[in-house]
Every structure is written in structure tokens, then in C-alpha cells.
């Protein structure tokens, strides 16, 4: 499996470690999987590990490693998956797919 530490993101790309997605809520509701075929849409949260040099120019926001973000993207063309780290996937997304910066202690929907 590829090691993300050996790669350096170019331009407007980010390396993100995805937060684990819950399968069942505290109230017992089973959450559906986000797959809808080849072009599945994924919304999630994760922590920025590395970012390319043009990210601030692309987003207009000073993103930095360690920040927790909410992202959205069509995973068929947006990311390349790397080794598992700490229970979550590590992958690349484009800076424009970042929807928000969120506090580390905030629980967002199906993510912890």
C-alpha cells in the first residue's frame, strides 16, 4: 500500500485523514452507506495532514495541517487512497472540495 508521507501534494491538493463514519447512531438508527454506484458522493470530515502550496490562493482561507474540515466530492475522480492510519483512510482531495473548517471536539452527523 502507498505511504502518503512519501508524497508531496501539488498546487491545490490536500492529504486528509478521514474521520470514522458511524454505522449506528446513539439512538439505534442504522445509517445507510454512502455508495450509489461508480460515482459515489461522499461527504465527511477529516484532519488535514499536508497541503499544496496554492491552497490558500484557491480557497481564500489559510488552511493548515491539523485542522479538521468538512469536505464533499465525487470520489471516483477526487481522491487516491493511501494506507490506513489511526482507523481512517488517508486520501487526496482538491482544496475547493473543502466546505468548512470545524472545531476538533464537534461531532458532525455520522462522523465522530
Condensed summary:
By secondary structure, the protein is mainly beta. The chain has a domain at 9-20 and 39-102: GroES chaperonin (10 Kd Chaperonin, Protein Cpn10, Chain O).
List the helices and strands and how they pair.
Blueprint: E1 13-18, E2 41-51, H1 55-59, E3 68-74, H2 75-78, E4 90-94, E5 98-102
Antiparallel strand pairs: 1-2, 1-4, 2-3, 3-5
Question: What does the model show?
Answer:
With 112 residues, the protein is mainly beta. It has a domain at 9-20 and 39-102: Roll (10 Kd Chaperonin, Protein Cpn10, Chain O), CATH 2.30.33. Helices cover 8% and strands 30% of the residues. It contains 2 helices and 5 strands, in the order ββαβαββ. The protein has helices at residues 55-59, 75-78; strands at 13-18, 41-51, 68-74, 90-94, 98-102. Strands 4-1-2-3-5 form a 5-stranded antiparallel sheet. The radius of gyration is 14 Å and the shape is globular. Mean pLDDT is 76; it is low at 35-39.
| Largest sheet data | 5 strands, antiparallel
Estimated structural class: mainly beta
Order of helices and strands: EEHEHEE
Number of helices: 2
Which fold name corresponds to the CATH topology of the domain at 9-20 and 39-102? Answer: 10 Kd Chaperonin, Protein Cpn10, Chain O
Q: Which spans have pLDDT < 50 for at least 5 consecutive residues? A: 35-39
Amino acid at each position: 500500500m502507498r505511504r502518503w508521507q512519501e508524497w508531496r501534494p501539488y498546487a491545490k491538493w490536500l492529504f486528509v485523514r478521514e474521520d470514522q463514519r458511524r454505522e449506528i447512531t446513539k439512538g439505534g438508527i442504522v445509517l445507510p452507506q454512502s455508495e450509489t454506484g461508480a460515482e459515489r458522493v461522499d461527504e465527511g470530515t477529516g484532519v488535514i495532514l499536508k497541503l499544496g502550496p496554492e491552497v490558500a490562493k484557491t480557497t481564500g482561507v489559510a488552511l493548515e495541517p491539523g485542522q479538521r474540515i468538512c469536505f464533499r466530492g465525487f470520489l471516483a475522480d477526487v481522491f487516491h487512497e493511501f494506507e490506513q492510519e489511526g482507523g481512517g483512510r488517508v486520501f487526496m482531495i482538491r482544496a475547493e472540495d473543502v466546505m468548512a473548517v470545524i472545531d476538533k471536539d464537534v461531532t458532525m452527523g455520522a462522523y465522530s
